[in-house]
């Protein structure tokens, strides 16, 4: 008897996804970024609150290499030029700051419970300063801040999408499964929300956050606001799929067999379009990341001392900053990378979500 | 056709009512009542307000009344007298403040729409016709990046380039010498010189999105039998594309014009803030931060109403262009 090779739907989707080169690149990139966010304390040369007022707006330093010192930079001292009032940094070439791998520095806790004080890369002497990507207004190392900022910026998108997924599944599912006047009402509400400019509304909501709230509470409220922004399109997709699947034979068969409603929904209907939903979800994560960045950038989202990419970009708000301290734009590079990676992965998922369909170009 | 327009008009009324309620709800959200906060702040600075004036304001807005009565007073004042209330920060009527900035905002919005269409349509068609050519890849690549880069970043970079290479004054829609001058040809030319940066920044993401849609739609159409038939009958390629598939691929242009309006306003707030434009966005931001709530509410209301009207117009336009929509079949 010949054995028949069988591949589950998941295997088929994965096979197809792997052929999507850009999507694989995106997946690797995202994996690296999330790993970096989890290991931020170890990867960042300095701690969260470490700053030095002597080094405000210090430009990036490029390490040199010699056999005597290994990697090193020269220490700098900033002073204000009396004529142009610009910050000028002079290198003290007589001294060197030796850099090394796995050096002791500011203490941190990984993932909230693993304490440590070893950093991947940094000055050998913990008292010295070193700025690979330059410093911000307070003289804090921008590279370290970008690593710590990724923790909030990358997670807020996921949490926000999770919330809007719950809303979207619930309302879209109810709308699509029951139809009739329930559907009508929910559809009108969605149309209403989609027809008004969202940012003014969410700005209004964000402005109502009491300023005395702590970072954690603000983070939570911002996620809720973001998820209110995202659920409508999800609900539409889910409703459309429900309507489509509801008419199919296997659902009718299950109904005739007297299968309870909840089992029909969760066992027979949801699995058939779960992959589409996942694709839509992964495409709405970048929107959320951009929304958080924009809200924080405008000063109505998260506020310092919370660190997110949007909060970091607040420093780069005017053209003058871009001209004098272009490295302050570096967090934006991180934002763009994350958004592009999510878009690639989402596109790949969407193309491979239906393993039996024809491959779209 | 008239039936369709009337039906859509009827549709708009409840949406407008809902918008006004939401707008009012939002201006009520912050804790405390702004009048007392305002008075307290003034007294803290040693100034004092005429108690009769405060009392008059209280009466006018019915502060202390339940939500619905306050809402009723607010909305009837707007509808019957065009009175949006008083801005606490500027001590001027909200209607005047908005009126000053609305024309520029609309100019910016319309210019952006025109730019989006003028770039996206040819690019999308070309991209689909020459699929897999390097220009197609270049257009798609640029589109990907355009969708991913936050608007304020593009704004900063372009303003920097404009400053470095074209010697333009950074920020604002006018050069300093024209900023407060009355309208003239010179001022118009000056405006056009400054307008391109915000227009490009605002239009970029929308353009990228529409290019993708047009390209995908046109690719679907280009392989349909009627195109093959037309080609077999010897119709020249250019005329062939222009005459049939492009018309079908045009639909999303018209129908998404309405959907683009909300995102235009969204983008405008951020971009105008970065470039210091004298449009409505920065005013709203300022009003929200200082809890100048009648100003904020008035702006949210106006912007939302404009968007709904824009969507209505684009729906009607779509019905004119595509009979299937008119008869409710698409």
From TrEMBL, chain A:
Chief site of localization: membrane
Keyword Transit peptide: no
Ranges of residues in domain ABC transmembrane type-1: 150-346
Cross-referenced InterPro entries: MetI-like, MetI-like_sf, OppC_N
Membrane topology, record value: Multi-pass membrane protein
GO cellular component, one term: plasma membrane
The entry's keywords: Membrane, Transmembrane, Transmembrane helix, Transport
Claim: DNA repair is one of the keywords in the record: no
Recorded coiled-coil stretches: none
Top-level taxonomy: Bacteria, Bacillati, Actinomycetota, Actinomycetes, Streptosporangiales
A single GO BP: transmembrane transport
TM annotation in the entry: 21-44, 152-177, 189-210, 216-238, 270-289, 325-345
Protein's name in the database: Peptide ABC transporter permease
A Pfam family reported for this protein in Swiss-Prot or TrEMBL: BPD_transp_1
Family membership noted in the UniProt record: Belongs to the binding-protein-dependent transport system permease family.
TrEMBL record, chain B:
Compartments, as annotated in UniProt: Cell membrane
Domain of life: Bacteria
Similarity annotation: Belongs to the binding-protein-dependent transport system permease family.
InterPro entries noted in UniProt: BPD_transp_1_N, MetI-like, MetI-like_sf
Annotated membrane topology: Multi-pass membrane protein
Start and end residues of each ABC transmembrane type-1 domain: 102-318
GO terms under cellular component: plasma membrane
Keyword Transmembrane helix appears in the UniProt entry: yes
Residue ranges crossing the lipid bilayer per the database entry: 7-27, 102-125, 137-163, 195-214, 269-288, 294-320
Keyword list, A-Z: Cell membrane, Membrane, Transmembrane, Transmembrane helix, Transport
Name of the protein this chain belongs to: ABC transporter permease
Major site of localization recorded for this protein: membrane
One GO BP: transmembrane transport
Signal peptide, first to last residue: none
PANTHER family: INNER MEMBRANE ABC TRANSPORTER, OLIGOPEPTIDE ABC TRANSPORTER, PERMEASE PROTEIN
């Amino acid at each position: 008897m010949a054995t028949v090779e069988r591949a589950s739907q998941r295997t088929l989707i994965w096979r197809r996804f792997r052929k999507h080169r850009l999507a694989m690149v995106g997946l690797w990139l995202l994996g690296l970024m999330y790993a970096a966010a989890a290991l931020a304390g170890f990867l960042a040369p300095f701690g969260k609150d470490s700053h030095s007022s002597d080094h405000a707006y210090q430009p990036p330093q490029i390490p040199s290499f010699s056999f005597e010192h290994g990697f090193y930079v020269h220490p700098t001292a900033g002073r204000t030029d009396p004529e142009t009032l610009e910050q000028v940094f002079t290198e003290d070439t007589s001294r060197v700051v030796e850099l090394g791998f796995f050096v002791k520095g500011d203490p941190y806790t990984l993932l909230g419970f693993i304490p440590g004080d070893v950093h991947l890369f940094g000055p050998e002497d913990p008292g010295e300063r070193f700025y690979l990507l330059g410093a911000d207004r307070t003289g804090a190392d921008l590279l370290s801040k970008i690593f710590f900022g990724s923790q909030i910026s990358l997670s807020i998108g996921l949490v926000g999408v999770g919330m809007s997924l719950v809303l979207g599944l619930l309302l879209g599912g109810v709308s699509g499964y029951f139809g009739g006047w329930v559907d009508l009402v929910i559809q009108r509400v969605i149309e209403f929300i989609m027809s008004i400019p969202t940012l003014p509304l969410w700005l209004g909501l964000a402005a109502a956050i009491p300023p005395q709230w702590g970072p954690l509470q603000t983070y939570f409220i911002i996620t809720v606001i973001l998820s209110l922004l995202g659920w409508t399109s999800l609900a539409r997709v889910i409703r459309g799929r429900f309507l489509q699947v509801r008419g199919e034979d296997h659902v009718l068969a299950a109904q005739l067999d007297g299968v309870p409603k909840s089992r029909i929904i969760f066992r027979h209907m949801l699995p058939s379009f779960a992959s589409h939903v996942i694709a839509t979800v992964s495409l709405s994560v970048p929107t959320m990341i951009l929304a958080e960045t924009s809200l924080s950038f405008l000063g109505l989202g998260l506020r310092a001392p919370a660190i997110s990419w949007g909060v970091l970009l607040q420093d780069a708000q005017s053209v003058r900053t871009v001209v004098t301290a272009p490295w302050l734009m570096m967090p934006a590079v991180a934002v763009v990378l994350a958004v592009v990676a999510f878009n690639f992965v989402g596109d790949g998922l969407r193309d491979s979500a239906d393993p039996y369909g024809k491959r779209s170009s | 056709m008239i039936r369709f327009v009337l039906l859509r008009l009827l549709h708009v009324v409840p949406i407008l009512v809902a918008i006004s309620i939401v707008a009012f709800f939002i201006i009520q959200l912050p804790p405390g009542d702004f009048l007392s906060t305002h008075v307290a702040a003034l007294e803290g600075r040693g100034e004092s307000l005429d108690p009769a004036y405060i009392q008059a304001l209280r009466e006018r807005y019915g502060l202390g009344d339940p939500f619905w009565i306050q809402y009723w007073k607010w909305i009837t004042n707007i509808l019957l007298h065009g009175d949006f209330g008083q801005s606490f920060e500027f001590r001027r009527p909200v209607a005047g403040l908005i009126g000053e900035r609305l024309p520029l905002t609309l100019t910016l919005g319309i210019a952006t729409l025109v730019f989006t269409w003028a770039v996206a349509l040819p690019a999308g068609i070309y991209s689909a016709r020459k699929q897999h050519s390097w220009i197609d890849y270049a257009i798609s690549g640029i589109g990907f990046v355009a969708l991913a880069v936050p608007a304020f970043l593009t704004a900063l970079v372009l303003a920097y380039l404009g400053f470095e290479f074209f010697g333009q004054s950074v920020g604002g829609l006018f050069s300093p010498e024209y900023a407060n001058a009355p309208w003239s040809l010179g001022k118009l030319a000056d405006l056009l010189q400054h307008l391109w940066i915000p227009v490009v920044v605002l239009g970029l993401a929308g353009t990228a999105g529409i290019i993708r849609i047009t390209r995908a739609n046109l690719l679907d159409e280009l392989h349909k039998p009627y195109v093959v038939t037309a080609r077999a009958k010897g119709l020249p390629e250019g005329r062939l594309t222009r005459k049939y598939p492009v018309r079908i691929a045009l639909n999303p242009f018209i129908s998404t014009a309405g959907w683009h309006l909300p995102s235009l306003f969204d983008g405008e707030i951020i971009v105008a803030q970065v470039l210091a434009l004298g449009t409505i966005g920065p005013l709203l931001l300022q009003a929200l931060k200082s809890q100048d709530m009648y100003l904020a509410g008035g702006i949210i209301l106006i912007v939302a109403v404009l968007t709904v009207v824009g969507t209505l117009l684009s729906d009607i336009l779509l019905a004119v262009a595509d009979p299937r929509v008119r008869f409710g079949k698409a």
